[in-house]
Design a protein that fits this description.
This protein has helices at about 10-20, 25-35, 50-60, 80-85, 95-110, 145-155, 175-185, 195-205, 215-230, 235-240, 240-260, and strands at about 65-70, 90-95, 115-120, 130-140, 160-170, 210-215, 265-270. By secondary structure, it is of the alpha/beta class.
């Protein structure tokens, strides 16, 4: 199944993501990532090490099981899950630079034989039916337009007893029009959804096993991110440039404020 052509906004987002991986694995960025999430892969999600360990248990990952990690970027948490559980992993994303970094990390961690990187669209997965035992994606759907198509594609490629775990940043329900607009402007690029995720899962053939509000943890991550950036301003300015650094810090402040005011939240779902 081919998806519609990318919008100009989506194309611009992809270019920016690809450029981001040029500096994502710089020493200062990895230091910050360790402070915020407890990992050092050059990742772009807010998945913590604790969340990744829970994901491994909930997905029943083990040697011989096959995991599909969507929006895998530079390998977090997919490569970590493969290393810690012995499973095989396919890392799928569109930005090529991220997957190149993941390839290098897989080689360094001795995972080249159990990991594969693939440039492909999550809304039109290039795999046969029932190809995977498990699917994971971390804060991906809030960065994509075709949320329903991605969930439907995941349902098609997972085995009958397979499981999916994912996190996503969402607009809080019940907001006034003004607060809804502010939430959309403050969140990830495509945070707005035409339906809540429980409904989207049901519409695409998934059975909801568990749902958890992770908003408090997101607020903690934003605070740590802001503190870590401010503590390393000189190194970050040398890497990114003063203007880009100022925009980055402002983004964390705006998003933290939106979370603290109840405009944005983060949810975690387990589905079968």
């Amino acid at each position: 199944m081919r998806r519609a052509a990318l919008s100009p906004e989506e194309l611009d987002q992809r270019r920016r993501l690809d450029a981001r991986y040029d500096w994502a694995c710089a020493p200062v960025m990895l230091e910050i990532e360790r402070d915020v999430c407890g990992c050092d892969y050059g990742g772009t999600s807010w998945t913590t090490r604790e969340e990744a360990d829970r994901m491994a248990e909930e997905l029943r990952l083990a040697p011989g099981r096959r995991l599909l990690d969507l929006g895998a970027g530079s390998g977090w948490p997919g490569l970590y899950l493969a290393k810690s559980t012995g499973c095989e992993v396919v890392l799928l994303d569109l930005p090529l630079n991220g997957l190149k970094a993941a390839r290098d990390r897989a080689r360094a961690d001795g995972l080249a034989g159990r990991s594969q990187g693939m440039v492909a669209d999550a809304a039109a997965l290039p795999f046969r039916e029932s190809a995977f035992d498990a699917v994971s994606h971390s804060d991906l759907l809030c960065c994509l337009v075709q949320k329903r198509a991605v969930l439907a594609a995941c349902r098609r490629v997972i085995r009958q007893q397979g499981l999916m775990v994912f996190t996503v940043i969402t607009v809080a329900p019940g907001l006034s029009p003004a607060d809804h607009h502010r939430a959309v402007a403050s969140g990830p690029e495509f945070v707005e959804s035409d339906s809540d995720y429980r409904s989207l899962l049901a519409q695409t053939g998934w059975k909801l096993i568990a749902a958890e509000d992770r908003t408090a943890r997101l607020a903690t991550s934003y605070r740590r991110q802001l503190e870590a950036d401010l503590a390393r301003q000189d190194d970050l300015a040398a890497l990114l440039g003063a203007e880009a650094l100022a925009e980055r810090i402002d983004t964390w402040r705006v998003r933290l404020d939106a979370v603290e005011k109840g405009l944005l939240r983060r949810e975690r779902f387990v589905a079968a």
